[in-house]
Amino acid sequence: MKLNITRKLVLHFAFVLLVFSLVVGSLFYWMYSRYSMEVHREDLKARAVNIAETLGSMLPADVSSGQNSTEPGPGMGGNHGAGQRGGQNAFGSYGAYLKFIDDIAMGDVWLVDQAAQFISVGSGRQQINYTDLPNEALNLIEGVFTGEVAFSESFSPLLDNASITVGAPVYDQNRKVIAAVMLHSKIETMKAAAYSGIRILFLSIALGLIGAILVALLLSRQFVEPLKQMERTTQRLAAGDLNASTGVDQQDEIGSLANNIDHLAQQLKKADQESRLIEQSRRDFIAEISHELRTPVTVMRASAEALTEGIVHSPDQAHEYHQQLLAEAIQLERIVNDLLELTRLQNPDFTIDKTKINLIEVLSDAARASRRLALSQNVTVHCSHDVQIWPFEGDYGRLRQMFLIVLDNAIKFSEPGQEVWLKSADHGGNGLAVTIIDHGVGIAPDQLPSIFDRFSKLSSASNKKGSGLGLAIAKEIADRHGVRISVTSEPNVETAFEFTFPKMKIDSADLNSIDE
Q1: From the first residue on, what is the mean pLDDT of each consecutive set of 10 residues in the chain (516 residues)?
Q2: Cβ contact 53:26 at 8 Å
Q3: Could you give the domains of the chain?
Q4: How far is CA 436 from the centre of its chain?
Q5: 128/110 Cα distance (integer angstroms)
């Protein structure tokens, strides 16, 4: 495995954080640059206005009244030399002040006279010719002399750097514009501040990314450890250790997965135990059926050998041996048929045809059929029913077979002259209780728990022909119909088999059809 889950988690987390940082950094740079530009523009504006107000308070009255100043030429283009001389007389004494302002204003400061023909610059600058000014710069100056505070980037070619310029009017004592202050600031200065903020931002992002990766490593280990524990548990389960457990106790999806694995381990253990029980049951079944088949097969073989070898000479003895062969063949056939019947009923794919029937009719039919055997043994079968109609959905033939098995056993284990009762009683919400009662030899207490097992039969002279599968078949039929079956017995006093049938909701039309 080239990349384990810890590395994948850290890489994915770092990638997401990096993309997030780039997006946030880009947005921050764009917004911070715009914000820095706006702040710087406002700062330039405030400084330019302060400088203009200071100059306005310092100018002499002859400048404010227009004395010693040349007349303006048409528009912005007057005589440069004359303007220069007049301007020198008007603003010459403020050169040192402009140089001082230039030093503390963190930008170039220009002073333009009222006629827009004289430009006084700060320290380290050469004189500017009006012809060098672009039209946009002249438009800015015109706007300032109308009383506006204006911005422009048109002075950049003259300053040899990309710059932003703010112009503020200088007022005399009569609030007339007599000059304009031009404050220039390099754009790269503003961008340097933005770049400094961006560097700090990305340095913080880098440090945060390193810290986040360390935290992701710690968290991923806590996240991965339960998964490793579950992996080890599944490997133990695959190796056959069904006692393995994850030991993970978390209230989240990982905890739910661990609980499911533990539940799966329990189910596998239970299935393994059931498989072992089934295997043991299969072995017991083979042993039981081998034991049951051994007796008739042995008797049949001994009789056949006696007849074949001529040991029997008397016709009466030969007839007796033939009778024995026939009886054992019938018994063997009965065992085989019962085994096939029980196997079909125990097969989940075997379907029972269920229809809406009157259960009382099934009971009456089974009682009539059992009276033939009862008559031969001088036993009387009585019926007692609380209701005449009990709607039920089931297989008529199978239910009749179930009752006949129990009735035949009751008659078989009864003494001549005794009675067998078939009773049904409506228990309301608890359903219909059907009870078969006899007063024969009964069932010993130690045999009651296994009475419905295969090949479980009483050792009695009256049960020589029993296969030991009848009650197992009756139990399967009852289970297929959702019927509870139970037995109580007091030997030589009373034995009672009770069937409890659930109550079913059937409309009147179905009841009428059953009644008919």
Answers
A1: 63 78 77 76 81 74 46 36 39 56 62 62 54 72 82 68 80 81 73 71 78 76 78 84 79 80 85 81 71 75 81 80 80 76 74 86 90 86 89 89 90 90 85 90 84 66 60 88 90 91 68 44
A2: no
A3: 5-192 (3.30.450.20), 253-345 (1.10.287.130), 353-515 (3.30.565.10)
A4: 55
A5: 10
Burial 176-209 (b: 16+ CB within 10 A, else e): ebbbbbbbbbbeeebeeebeebbeebbeebeeeb
* Structure-token pair, residue 387: 């209701």
Determine contact, residues 117/71, Cβ cutoff 8 Å: no
Angle, helices 315-346/470-480, rounded to nearest 10 degrees:
20
Q: Which run of H or E residues covers position 438?
A: strand 432-438
Element at 375 (helix H, strand E): helix 359-376
CA atoms within 13 A on the CB side of 499: 26
* CB atoms near residue 148 (< 10 Å): 13
pLDDT at 269: 85
Give the 3-state secondary structure of residue 426.
strand
pLDDT of res. 84: 40
Say how far apart CA 330 and CA 311 lie, in whole Å. Answer: 24
